[in-house]
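[job 4471] stage=fold_predict status=RUNNING
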Amino acid sequence: MNEITARGEKKLLLASGRAHPELAQQIAAELETDLLPIDAYDFANGEIYVRAAQSVRGADVFVLQAHPAPLNNWLMEQLILIDSLKRASAKRITVVSPFYPYARQDKKGRGREPISARLVADLYKTAGADRLMSVDLHTAQIQGFFDGPVDHLMATPLLADYLRGKVNVEEITVVSPDTGRVRVAEQWADRLGGAPLAFVHKSRDLRVPNHAVSKQVVGQVEGRTCVLIDDMIDTGGTIAGAVQVLKDAGARDVIIAATHAVFSDPAAQRLAECGAREVVVTNTLPISAEKRFDSLTVLSIAPLIARAIKEVFEDGSVTSLFDGQA
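[job 4471] inference complete, writing structure tokens
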């Protein structure tokens, strides 16, 4: 069966781009369905062709796509897939982008800068999307960029519950890598039984991408097991620098926990050598064999996404997945 029917009237179809087939298969398995068969290929000049290999008329279609490098290719493939499904008379199209493209460009830091995260939301809407689902947006304000329902899923319960079974929660200090993630750190602290908070002060040159300098830690970390949290790790320079700052401040141990493993070079080497005891991420993005290392743990986000898809399809509550705190 390639479809799920609710109350004999609604039909669910899960379609996926080619960026992360492993995650697509995991979500399909959680939903106990098959992926919608898709014909997709590239022309010699880079043009992308996408077509559903069976009827989608009247269906509730969830269009999954991961966005690793080259991000622009995978985003374009997703947009073309959405357009093809709209033209094939799908009843409702929900974009499932676990790692939201261009999420870091969510505001104007200087004059004449684009707000590319808003542009992506407009592209989704224009292509034919009715709803958007994503995991751990870089900033919550991105929810307001899309003109329609947005399901903002959170990986904190998944990551925090994993760490709860690995360390003594009474010895944990939750550390935000900067002041902008303190609110998320508070959610982590609540999940870990009221753990104390700290944050690393850093400076950033807006003219230079992927460059920030960690300077000092604010909060009690001496003799503690520090859980250093972030939404994404790109080149790993900032997070590796934060580990060193925490070690210099007397932290007994450091565990890194992040949702999106972008892992642009040389992230894997930096993380492997930074001195962190463990690096815990989810599989919102594919992680190739050459970017894996001994201290890396990858948790599957598929159960969370599958549960959210089921709630949306059955007109249930996505907020209920987070104890009413989403």
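[job 4471] summary: The radius of gyration is 20 Å.
[job 4471] exit 0
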